[in-house]
Amino acid sequence: MDNKTLNQILEIAFAKRVSDVHFEVDNPPFFRAHGQLLRSKLPNLKPQDTEFIAATIMEHNSRELPEDFKEFDAAYSLANNSGRFRVSIFKQRGYIGIVMRVIPPEIGNFQDLKLPAVLSEIVKAPNGLILVTGPTGNGKSTTLASMINHINEKFAYNIITIEDPIEFLFSSKKSCIVQREVGIDTDDFSSALKASLRMDPDVIMVGEMRDLETIDACIKASETGHLVFSTLHTQNAASTINRLLGHFPPDAQEIIRQRLADILVATVSLRLIEDKNGENIIPVVEVMRSTTTIQACIREGNLDDIKGHIEKGSAQYQMQSMDQHLIQLCKKNIITVKEAVRISGSSDLERKLTFT
């Protein structure tokens, strides 16, 4: 493996519009395209090949890989910023492995990404907490970048992003954008969040809520008049609120419910799904907005009722449950019923399809 070969492989990834490239010892490089993992016809990789790739990525970040590392996240760009990747470097069976997630060169708008138009209303909130959730690899980062870029184009705000690593590169437009990377520009999310409050922010974007300290700092920033964006690996609005509460001691959870009810603006939960022809990957999206009724559910701990209130408020508040979106896509003949049932967490989606 050398620089020329590595860059050729990564350029192929961009040309073929794959989402991920995998490098593991005793296997050829793998590409993930349209959700499927495809084995390339390249030679099997040797330990020195993956070591070279890892060293190249770390050198690009002006860093060295610690000898005792177990896993490490970084970013990598091709020459002239013609391609950018989020990189996970890890140990497996004593060897180094690498997965490189392709970051699209341009940030799509809501229409390009087939995201609900109501997101343009949600990001107008003057303050509070907006959460983008979903499993790994289901479009959270892309959706979050699109929301931040919409603000950047429409409003004159000071936007601070705290990421690990920095993924999408923003250019300041109407807004001024400062991007800070954990491990390079700051020690950790919570320290950067505290510092950001002294940087005259209007909007703060935290790449991920990973621990209690970061969650608490995000809540406090939301309470002090800032608009805060972040992500969680949760499936829907109810599980998102449960996850946040679960980080706090039981005797603190009641007051946290009250605080969340006051500051939560919206949750946007995503799953990516193949279209009927298997040619495109499209998002299925649950949108919950914080209405008076949903605030009451959060305060009183009636989280199981949230999905029903989302569905009842679909017309008035432009909310939608995952099932409602799946049904829309089925009725437009964009996805199959079989795929909709697979994605849905509801046992009676087929019955809903029959009666709508």
Number of strands: 13
Total of domains: 2
Q: What is the CATH superfamily classification of the largest domain?
A: P-loop containing nucleotide triphosphate hydrolases
Low-confidence stretches: none
Task: Give the DSSP E fraction (strand runs of 2 or more residues).
Answer: 15-25%
What's the Cα radius of gyration? 21 Å
Mean pLDDT: 92
Alpha-beta classification? alpha/beta
State the end-to-end distance: 56 Å
**Count of DSSP H/I helices:** 14
* Annotated CATH architecture of the largest domain: 3-Layer(aba) Sandwich
By CATH reckoning, the class of the largest domain would read Alpha Beta
Largest β-sheet summary = 7 strands, mixed
- Helix share bin: 25-40%
Strand neighbour order, sheet with most strands: 9-8-10-11-7-12-13
Oligomer: single chain
Query: Per the principal axes of the C-alpha atoms, what is the gross shape?
Result: globular
Q: What pattern of helices and strands is seen along the backbone?
A: HEEEHEEEHEHEEHEHEHHEEHHHHHH
Kindly identify the CATH topology of the largest domain: Rossmann fold
